[in-house]
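ok trying this again, last paste got cut off
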Amino acid sequence: MNSRRAVKRDYSSPLRDAQAQATRLNVITAAGRLFVDNGYGATSIEAIAQAAGVGRATVFTSVGGKPALLRTAYDVAIVGDDEPVPLPQRPWARRVLEATTQRERIDRYADVLVLVNSRVAGICEAFRGAASSDLDVRASWESIRSERRGGAANFVRFITDLGDLRPGLDAEHAADIVWLLNDPALYHQLVVERGWSEAHYRDWLSETMQAQLLSGRPRGARREGSTIRTRAQST
């Protein structure tokens, strides 16, 4: 008689994990699309489940309720996938820090903003509208605004690592300027609503940041589009 007691082991199947991850991303994608197309209030969990081809319970177990779905859809839109790789470690984001001059760093940051805002502008508009009527969404929205302001301050530090800001401009006010200009709402208003091309928006963004943050005449904006713009269209 075997006196050893059976030891219960956790069972993990790579295939099962991959399927669960695919289901989760499918739910997030469906939710994000419906939030953008129909608005947060008009989108139900049942509609998300139907669009994702899963049961209602699966929506909750894979992601959560509507506030969690909205925030997760935003987070995925920021980086373009659900992989656990922070934005600063993405190759297209690292290019900013690889720049060796202030103007080149700003120019590459404009590239990143085009790429990110082309994916996130729609969900941000849904987020902004929902924040006025849902307390949970409002808390997430304020967190997003605070994170953008923190990112703007970090970018200003990256700029001042390579030289001074224009005379009379301190780091706090510079971060406020970047925070204003990196708002996805600007992309939505100028590109989606007013019909600007992404190349025009990118050049305007680069030139405006250079003019606002640095001394001298802006330079370095490319008039014929950019590599990042091509990636944004193909992502």
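PB: full thing came through this time. Residues 203 and 221 are 5 Å apart (CA to CA).
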